[in-house]
Amino acid sequence: MATQKKDYVMDGIVRAKYGAAALAGLQGAVPNSYPRIMGPNALKYVQEVVESGLTSDMVERFEKAFAEAMGIKHCIATPGCTPALAVLAASFPFEPGDEIIVSPITDFGTLQGLCRENYIPVFPDTEPGTVNMSARTIEPCITDRTRAILVVHKTGIICDMDPINALAKKHNLIVYEDVCQAVFGEYKGRKAGSLAYAAGYSFDSEKTMGSDVGGCIITNDDNLAERMRFIGQSRGAQMIPHFGRAHAECGYALRMPQCTAAICLAQLEIIQGQVAHRDKMIRLLYAMLGDIPGIIPLPIPHYMNVFSCWMAGFSIDPKAFKCGGEEFARQLSDAGLPGAGQGKYYLMPAAMLFLQRQAASKTYPFSMPPASREYHYSGDNCPNAQAFLENFIRWATFSDKYQPEHCEIVARMVREVAERNRV
Ligand SMILES: Cc1ncc(COP(=O)(O)O)c(C=O)c1O
Question: Which domains occur in the chain, in start order?
Answer without folding.
Answer: 42-265 (3.40.640.10)
